[in-house]
Structures are given as structure tokens and as C-alpha cells.
Amino acid sequence: MTYYLKPSRSVIIQTVIGLAILFLLSYISDATNILYLAVYALFLLLLLNFIFRMPICVKITDDIIQVKRLFNSLTFNKKEVDIEPISVKELKKLGKFYGATGLFSYVGWFSLPAESNVRIQTANQNDMALVTTKEGKKYVINYPQVQ
Length: 147
Fold this sequence. Notes:
Elements: E1 2-4, H1 9-27, H2 34-53, E2 55-60, E3 64-69, E4 73-77, E5 81-85, H3 88-91, E6 95-101, E7 106-111, E8 117-122, E9 128-133, E10 138-142
Parallel strand pairs: 8-10
Antiparallel strand pairs: 1-2, 2-3, 3-4, 5-9, 6-7, 7-8, 9-10
């Protein structure tokens, strides 16, 4: 079954603000200033990175969990991972290495106090699960079947 992910209200608001800043910067631009162009290009690349990592849907079958993104997807074999629910309260303790907590989605590399490094790929803060692979990699994804 495929579950399409609806972004939360805060994700929508932060995305609109981020895009408004991008358009505002392009409107008031000084195309001859190299420093300005470098900052604008960096901001644009950062936004594109988050857009490409944004989860769109989660496909769940008997054998796999697949988080589909714009250009690629994360695929987990259900027999080779541990899945446990994770609460918003636990996510508020995040230490961010690199990521977005609301710009297009919740994506990036974070750390939780009780866990090692965690990669987050969620569109909202509903039905989240901590997926641990047999290699020890940890992901937080939207997983609608989590109890």
C-alpha cells in the first residue's frame, strides 16, 4: 500500500517563507556583486538539496518499506530492520548536524541523546518510526502502520 505524505502546517509556512526570501533576494539583486551571487547560489543549492530529499510517499509491502523522494528512494527490507515508534517529544531533543526542520520537510542528519546519528526523512510529525538497519544505520521516517 502507498501512503502519500501530507506536509504539516509548519512545513508549509517555512517553505513559503524560504521561497519568498529566495524570490526577494533575486528581486533586489545586484548582479555585479560576486559576494551576493555566491550567497544567492549557496541558498539556492541548499533549497534544491532539501527539495530533492523531501519524502513524497511511503510504499509498504509485506517485504519492503520504501520512502519515495523526488529522484530516488530509501528502501528497507522489513526482515533486516527493527522498527519502533518514536514520539515528537523525543525528536525535540535533536542535535542537528545538517538538515531542515520544516523547510520542505524534516530531512537531514541529526543526533538523539539515546541514539547515535539519525537520518530523518519525514514530511510531518505524524506516525513516525525509528528504523534501524542491521548495519546500525538509523532513520526516522513516516510509517503509517506503526502502533
